[in-house]
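queue> pop job 88
queue> type: inverse folding (structure -> sequence)
queue> payload:
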C-alpha cells in the first residue's frame, strides 16, 4: 500500500514537472515542434493518387483562361485528364457537341494556392506534397488560434494534437487529392479567421445569464442602423473585418463553410452583435462576391451549373450509394441515410469478404481453414474501414470532450461555435453525397475548427486534460492512424 502511494506521488510530481516545462517553453517553439511532427506524420504514410484537377485549373489560369484542356489523352490513367469525371464540358455549356475543354465546378481558391507551384513545375506539380505542407501549417495555425481560448497550455496542446492527428484532417492532408486538398485550404483559413476573432474578443467565454430578448435585439439593430447612417465607418471593427475577410476566402475553397457565419456574429471585435456582424459580413462579402462574379463570368450563371450536371451523372451512375436523381442536390430526404453515416456507421468487423466501395462484398477473405487475422492484412483483416464513411464519434471519440462545454456554462463563444457546427452539419447531411470515397466523414473538416473550440473549453470545464482527456485524444490519434494506413493499403 505504501509503495502504491509512493508511486502515485512520484507520478504526480513527474506530471507537474512536465506541465511546468510545457508552460515555460516559448509558444513559438511548441508550434514549430507541432509543425515538424505533422510534416513527418503527414508525409510518410501516403503516395500520389494523381487526382490533380486543381493543377489543371492553375495551369489554365496561368494561360489566362478558366477553361482547362479536356479531354487530354496521354496514355491512360493517371496521365492526361480524359479520365476526369468531375468536370463541366464546354459542350454542355455552349450546346456545341464539337466544343472541347471544360470548366471545373469547384471553387477556385485551391487552384489559386497552387499557382506558384504550377508556374515552376507545371502539371508535374506534386499536389500531395503541397497538401502536406498546408496540413502541417494548419497544425501551427491551430496551436496559434487555440491560444485565444481561456485554457491552460496543456489543454491547448491536447486540443491541437486532436485537431491535427485525431480527426480526419490528418487523412485529408496526407492524401491531397482534389477534394481533400480543398478541405486543407479551407481549414487553414478558417483557423486564421477564428484565431483573429478570439484575440479581438477576450470576454467571449464569459457566462451569459440569459439570451437577449427580441426587444433588446431590435434596439441593438436600430442603434446599429442609426450609426451606419450617421457614421458608416464607425460601425466597422478592423479586426473583425479582417476575420470576416479570411472567413470569406475560406468559403471560396469549401462553399459550406459559409454556414458557420453565426460564429462571427457572436464572437470577435466590435462590442455588439450588430457591429460584429456588420464588420465580419463586410469582409466576407468581398471574396464571396468575387466567387459569384467568377461564376457569372465563366458560366453566365450566379451558381455554377456544373454542380447539377455532376449530380445527375453521379446519381444515375451510383444508385447503389442511395442517390436519387429525381431529388434535389440538397434535399432533406437525404438526411436519414447521411445522418446514419455521420453518427453511427462503423467499420467491417471480422469480415469474411472485403466490403467494396459501394457496400458490396469484394475479394474473398479469411475463407481458408486456419486463416489468421491481423490488423493490416488486406486479405484477412480484423477490421477494415468502409469507403462510404464512418461515424465522427467512432473515428474521433475526443469530440465527446465538448459535452461539458455545452452543458455546464453558456457563453457567446459556446453558442457561436455550436450554431456554426449545427448549421454546417445540417447542410452537409442534406447533400446527396456523403464524401465517398473516404476514411471517416470528410465533411466534418468543414466544422472541425469550431468543434475544437468546444473540445478545449470542455476540458477546461472539467478542470484540465485529465485521464479521460488523455485516453480520448490518444484513442482518436490511434484510430486515425489506423484509417490513414488502411486508406493507403486500399489505394483510396
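queue> result:
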Amino acid at each position: 500500500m505504501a509503495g502504491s502511494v509512493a508511486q502515485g506521488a512520484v507520478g504526480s510530481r513527474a506530471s507537474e514537472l512536465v506541465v511546468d516545462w510545457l508552460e515555460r517553453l516559448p509558444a513559438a517553439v511548441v508550434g514549430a515542434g507541432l509543425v515538424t511532427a505533422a510534416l513527418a506524420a503527414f508525409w510518410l504514410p501516403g503516395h500520389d493518387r494523381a487526382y490533380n484537377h486543381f493543377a489543371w485549373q492553375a495551369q489554365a489560369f496561368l494561360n489566362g483562361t478558366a477553361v482547362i484542356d479536356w479531354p487530354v489523352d496521354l496514355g491512360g490513367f493517371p496521365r492526361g485528364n480524359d479520365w476526369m469525371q468531375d468536370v463541366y464540358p464546354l459542350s454542355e455549356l455552349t450546346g456545341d457537341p464539337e466544343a472541347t475543354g471544360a470548366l471545373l465546378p469547384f471553387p477556385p481558391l485551391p487552384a489559386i494556392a497552387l499557382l506558384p507551384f504550377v508556374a515552376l513545375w507545371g502539371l508535374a506539380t506534386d499536389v500531395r506534397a503541397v497538401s502536406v505542407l498546408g496540413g502541417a501549417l494548419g497544425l501551427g495555425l491551430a496551436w496559434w488560434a487555440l491560444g485565444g481560448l481561456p485554457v491552460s497550455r496543456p489543454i491547448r496542446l491536447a486540443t491541437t494534437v486532436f485537431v491535427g492527428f485525431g480527426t480526419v484532417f490528418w487523412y485529408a492532408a496526407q492524401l491531397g487529392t482534389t477534394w481533400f486538398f480543398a478541405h486543407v485550404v479551407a481549414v487553414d483559413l478558417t483557423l486564421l479567421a477564428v484565431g483573429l476573432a478570439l484575440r479581438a474578443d477576450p470576454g467571449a467565454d464569459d457566462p451569459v445569464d440569459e439570451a437577449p430578448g427580441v426587444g433588446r435585439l431590435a434596439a441593438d439593430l436600430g442603434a446599429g442602423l442609426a450609426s451606419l447612417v450617421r457614421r458608416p465607418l464607425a460601425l466597422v471593427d478592423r479586426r473583425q473585418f479582417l476575420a470576416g475577410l479570411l472567413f470569406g476566402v475560406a468559403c471560396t475553397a469549401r462553399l459550406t463553410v459559409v454556414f458557420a457565419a453565426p460564429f462571427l456574429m457572436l464572437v470577435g471585435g466590435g462590442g455588439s452583435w450588430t457591429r460584429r456582424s456588420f464588420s465580419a459580413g463586410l469582409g466576407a462579402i468581398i471574396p464571396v462576391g468575387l466567387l459569384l462574379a467568377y461564376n457569372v463570368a465563366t458560366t453566365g450563371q450566379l451558381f455554377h451549373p456544373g454542380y447539377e450536371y455532376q449530380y445527375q451523372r453521379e446519381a444515375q451512375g451510383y444508385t447503389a450509394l442511395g442517390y436519387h436523381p429525381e431529388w434535389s442536390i440538397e434535399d432533406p430526404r437525404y438526411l436519414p441515410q447521411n445522418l446514419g453515416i455521420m453518427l453511427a456507421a462503423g467499420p467491417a468487423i471480422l469480415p469474411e469478404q472485403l466490403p467494396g466501395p459501394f457496400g458490396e462484398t469484394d475479394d474473398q477473405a479469411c475463407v481458408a481453414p486456419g486463416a489468421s487475422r491481423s490488423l493490416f492484412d488486406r486479405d484477412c483483416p480484423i477490421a477494415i474501414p468502409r469507403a462510404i464513411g464512418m461515424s465522427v464519434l467512432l473515428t474521433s471519440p475526443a469530440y465527446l470532450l465538448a459535452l461539458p462545454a455545452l452543458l455546464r456554462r453558456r457563453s457567446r463563444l459556446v453558442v457561436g461555435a455550436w450554431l456554426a457546427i449545427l448549421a454546417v452539419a445540417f447542410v452537409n447531411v442534406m447533400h446527396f453525397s456523403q464524401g465517398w470515397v473516404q476514411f471517416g466523414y470528410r465533411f466534418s473538416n468543414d466544422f472541425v475548427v469550431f468543434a475544437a473550440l468546444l473540445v478545449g473549453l470542455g476540458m477546461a470545464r472539467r478542470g484540465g486534460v485529465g485521464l479521460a482527456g488523455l485516453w480520448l485524444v490518444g484513442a482518436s490519434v490511434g484510430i486515425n492512424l489506423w484509417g490513414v494506413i488502411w486508406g493507403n493499403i486500399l489505394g483510396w
